[in-house]
Design a protein that fits this description.
Layout lengths: L14 E5 L3 E6 L7 E7 L6 H15 L2 E5 L2 H7 L13 E4 L3 H14 L12 E2 L6 E7 L12 E2 L5 E2 L32 E2 L3 E10 L2 E8 L4 E8 L11 H15 L7 E7 L2 E7 L4 E2 L15 H27 L2 E2 L8 E3 L5 E3 L6 E2 L21 H17 L13 H13 L4 H11 L7 H4 L8 H15 L12 H13 L11 H5 L6 H9 L9 H9 L5 H13 L4 H14 L1 E4 L2 E6 L2 E3 L6 H15 L5 H8 L16 H15 L2 H16 L1 E4 L2 E4 L15 H18 L1
Antiparallel strand pairs: 1-2, 2-4, 3-5, 3-7, 4-5, 6-7, 8-9, 10-11, 11-12, 12-13, 13-15, 14-15, 16-18, 17-20, 18-19, 21-22, 22-23, 24-25
Helix pairs in contact: 1-3, 5-6, 10-21, 13-15, 15-16, 15-17, 17-18, 17-19, 19-20, 19-21, 20-21
Keywords: Kinase, Transferase
InterPro entries: Kinase-like_dom_sf (IPR011009), Prot_kinase_dom (IPR000719), RamC_N (IPR057929)
Protein name: Kinase
Length: 727
Amino acid sequence: MSLITLENITFYDDVTIKNTDCFTYISMSETAIPYQGWKIHISATLENYQDILTKTMSCCYEEHISFKFINNTKDLLDIFSKKSSPIEVGKFITIYPENDKKFLKILELLHNLLDGFQGIQILTDHRYKNSNVLFYRYGVMNATLINGERPLLKDLEGNTYPDIQGPYYECPSFIEELFPDKSYTSAHDNNEIKMNNRYIMKSIIHQTGSGNVYIAFDILNEENVIVKEARKNVYINEDISAIDLLQNEYHTLSTLQKSFIPKVIDEFFDDENYYLVEEYIRGERLDCLKNKFNLLLSRPSIEHDLFCDNISAIITQMFEKLELIHKEGILLEDISTSNMILDSEDNLYFIDFETAYSKKSDMLVETTNNHYPSHITSKFEKRDRIKLWYSIIDLLTNATSLLKFDKSGFSTVKSFLKMSYEMNFPIHIIQLFLNDFNNEKQFDLSTLISTLPNINLELLDFKRVQILETLLTVNSFEIPGTSLLDTVDNYLAVKYYDLPSSENNLFDEILQDKQNDNIETVLAKLILKKDSYKKHLDFLDKIIYSNNTNYKYKYRVLQILNNHDGEETLFRETVKSIKITDISFEKGIPYIKLDQYLSPYLTNGNSGLIIELIKFSLKHNTTEFDDFIKILSLGIDHTYAKSTSLNTGLAGLGLANAWLYFYFNDIKYLNISVKIFNHIYDYSIYKANKLVLIDPLQEKINYSYANGMLGQYYFIDHLLTLIKKGK
């Protein structure tokens, strides 16, 4: 990374210079930057940015106008490239005039200074006259992000408006346009946009800084087409432009001419941007079909067999058609579920050939995404096949989420294989998978071939100790959760296991506040046993009998009544209310309903309800809920879930099955619980020689009780305790 500096400029004392990792800010001390106003953006190219910066700096200094610029070549390349968002692309220099008069003056001065320079179109701004680098808009100038979001524009009455609506120019309704006679197309105009006198743009289906992908109507052939755009002067890397890459797709498609790839219809330039027109293929991208092809869904036997037949045929198509492309000497490189389409008859199509290249030439761009490792040892055709397998893993399971923590791909492959064996995935597909991964040097296939032995207590306890040893190395556990009740759960678990935390007085303010007794605050006090439930019977009645109360609060009422030796009648009334208002059936199985979803989980679903019913039954020596518990248990026999957490994931299901085993002494529940733990354990990595459990839905390692490793430990700890008690 090289720094971008101001060359041959001597500053006087009234100039303040501030450098950050990305920007250099040049402030004129006697000039305050207003909160909002007309501002100027200047773009450039990698060849001319230094000249443009030097000229712009001289002009701003003479006029005493503050500005900022990107101060290193890495960030500059990013802002000039496809990586950049459409609302940020091209913005090299930003100028902050203090009023309209200075804005108009410096705009014209810069237009004369920068005449003839090439740059990138800034999509959120309007081009000034015929300049290729000079753009402007009205927007926020002197404000910081609030919770990661852009600050808002304000009118004279204090009403607020979005600073940027989208990647297009829009003058705010409360501001008078300074160039009212100029012509431009608003994003809200309904006029048809016709390109090349032939294509009427209907909709945008994908946006990037380097160009959009459109659905358009071809007037000549009277059919829908796909129009891909590559904007001038936008880079892919230092050596390749967006236009280079899209033209490469044109040549590749023209060479291949297969029935399972889009046909080329046309190519043209408009305003120096390049456009490629391709056949419109009716169907859905595979990344939009993940729910349909989820391998981990519990399906009846006949339905499972049909699923396996269907997905086997699709995977076979993938590799047969990839082989046909390879026979033409073409390698795809950019392979993902978003680059494949399935039509209504399950015919598979490959799309997006920008990075495809001839085996006889060098790779244009090495591509990567979140669904396969950044380093794949295989070359050429085998590299494409490995990437295709990772795309299949991403389509069928959530195992690619492990790449966030284990970038080698080993954990992903290991988990997918185990899932495939357990879900009775076709063995010939598994064998094909193993054959292709045989040459991946970072994998020891002998450790990947899954066996599913019965786990004994000693091994379970060994894994429990591994997890505990990791938890004991955590310096301080975070108590705050996504809600007050999650926070309470985290606090009680840390206290239960006597673990370190810096949040010792977390609930003092809440417990002392007598005026703000909202539903979560009251429940928190009762769960913490800082108040008697009898003082809040009217409040609890409102929770129990209201049709609008979220189930998660009724679950907490059951928890409180069990923990406080509460009234049996009130517990039964709460269960009755849940049966009436919070249960929905799917294929004859009752689930707790959450809006449009059905939940088997702990704090918002079947699992938590089952545990509280069992605790009540044991405490009061009653079997009145046994039939209800058994039918609820049909909804928690899932051994896979998107999350592995306790409160809203797999660990909660495992804990409920452990309680079911203890209560009914039925080995099937123990088998489910142990299998669930093993699946949670599969989502593990080693960090500093310590075993760490992770949650596929988390972006980083989480050690909390509600959503992290402490909750997963609580499950295995209680599983072993209940097994021993059952014995």
